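Predicting holo structure, magnesium ion bound.
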Amino acid sequence: MPGTTNPFRPSFGVSPRVLAGRTDLLQDVDVALDEGPGSPLRSLLVSGARGMGKTVVLNELEEIARTRGWLVLRLPEGPDMLTELETSTVPALLAEHDATAVRRRFTGAGVSGVGSVTTEVEDRYPVHRSLTRLLERLSDVLAVHETGMMFTLDEVQDADPQVVGRFATVYQHLVRDEREVAFAAAGLPVGVDQLLRQGGTTFLRRAERVHLDLLTDEEVAEAARATVSDAGRTLADDAVAALVEIVHGYPYLLQLVGYHAWRVDPSREEVTVRDVHSTRPLVVERMGRLVHAPAVAPLPEGQRSYLRAMAVDDGPSSTREIAERMGVPMQQQNVYRARLIDRELIRPTSHGFVDVTLPYLREHLRAQPR
Ligand SMILES: Nc1ncnc2c1ncn2[C@@H]1O[C@H](COP(=O)(O)OP(=O)(O)OP(=O)(O)O)[C@@H](O)[C@H]1O
Ligand SMILES: [Mg+2]
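Done. Tokens:
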């Protein structure tokens, strides 16, 4: 009896059953955690377009850390990040891992005096001394077990760069102290750039930038096959080819197409090419609603009209023709082009040509009423 539980997970923020690609990055970080303090890949800024798998990568990194017994601290969102860390997250962890700290807390002696500040943090943000001390204490406790702590922060584009900057100062202090710590943040490219500009402490600027790109067709094919077969069915060869073609290397679509193809008839042993093809209208609709509409909505009219001018073509668009269609000079065209490239909505292909980054943006734009 073929499996009936659908193994695909087309939801943002949910890790796939089978991870496609990303192995080099994960291996490098694994090594970095072994290498000890100072290894560059211990501080990561992951960027990529929506649905490219940033949260999934963060989850995997957390898993790598946990596997080696490290503590994972997800940084709380919002303006109270540091206060929350200081008054609730870290004290709770200390309570769990350090018996002395619990006693101190309950006798009301507070936490001052715990741990020792050996280096002064000289940065432009006020030092959160007590948070630093708490983290040092936690790090001391973990050092007994020869482990460390990994901080993660998702959706960086929504965080206040000042707040992240303040955290970075605390983190930098731990790094200078040669403690076993790691930091990984993920966000949309514009958000990460903004963070570096505004919240840019030395540490953030030195952090390793990792840019998540589309998966290769081989990675998509391999993961699709494995996801289906691990769940007790098979994906026919022509079905794999059709899936690869519809997915265009985009991780979210791998899950979405797989999910709906599987659903056509879960009692059948094989997922067929017809099952895969039947998902196409739905793919275009979901991509438009969940990915493209939110990306296009905040754009100024000029950039939106640039995209509409591109949507006329079936493949890469000539920048000269775009300018003509828009009725603007090349120079003006160049400004729009640069902004849209920054947002990773488009990318240059060959000289004088640009293409949309994510699949089905053209279809979405064409379906919009003017
Ligand atoms: N490497 C991968 N292999 C297979 N599926 C993946 C991979 N990366 C992401 N996915 C799938 O793609 C979808 C989107 O992933 P994720 O939520 O991590 O994207 P994101 O970049 O964090 O998006 P957002 O910008 O909305 O936060 C999920 O359904 C996830 O399971
Ligand atoms: Mg995400």
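Residues 217-286 form a domain with the Helicase, Ruva Protein; domain 3 fold (CATH 1.10.8).
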